[in-house]
Design a protein that fits this description.
The chain contains 2 helices and 8 strands. The chain has 168 residues and is α+β, with helices and mostly antiparallel strands. The protein has 2 domains: 31 residues; 125 residues, Immunoglobulins (Immunoglobulin-like, Sandwich), CATH 2.60.40.10.
Length: 168
């Protein structure tokens, strides 16, 4: 068997070092804490006969020491255990290390989903909600990594019926 020339050996060593470095970089990013997501706001954009359009804002928390690049988000809003609205956003956003940002998402709801979600809540003092979905994060190179999320909370309805029209 012929021995490799010095140039071929150098090229071989550079190749091996590059592969080991790339594997190390990929492994380092796998230990990142997934971002936390919470519902920050909900606004009515448009009401039609069969569909309503809302804009929600989700707050994304990055608790890692490196920035995340968000390519998009898809989510579903559930109220009182009934699907209320779903949507997607191709919003590009950079979340600095140890920081948070809000990302707007347009969500759509059929009138049937609204009626189902609010049916049993006419006498309730609180609405329980869950927002769940996936963040689409920029990975290494052109790859995208999806990270599932789920966040729940409660909206108090106390005092809403006591508002008079001058306060609105």
């Amino acid at each position: 068997m012929k021995s490799l020339s010095n140039t071929a050996q150098i090229i071989w060593h550079i190749f091996i070092a590059t592969v080991i470095t790339a594997i190390g970089c990929v492994g380092a990013h796998q230990n990142l804490t997934p971002p936390r997501v919470a519902l920050a706001d909900l606004r009515i954009k448009e009401i039609k006969v069969f569909e309503s359009v809302f804009e929600i804002e989700v707050r994304v928390f990055n608790t890692n020491d490196i920035a995340f690049e968000v390519k998009g988000i898809d989510c579903e809003l559930v109220i009182n255990d009934q699907r209320f609205a779903t949507g997607v956003s191709k919003t590009q956003s950079s979340i600095p290390a140890l920081a948070s940002v809000t990302i707007p998402v347009t969500v759509y709801s059929s009138m049937l989903d609204i009626i189902r979600g609010l049916h049993d809540s006419h006498n309730a003092e609180n609405l329980n909600y869950t927002i769940k979905g996936r963040l689409h994060l920029q990975g290494l190179g052109a790859t995208t990594r999806t990270v599932p999320f789920k966040s729940s909370g409660e909206l108090s309805l106390k005092g809403i019926d006591n508002l008079d029209e001058t306060e609105m």
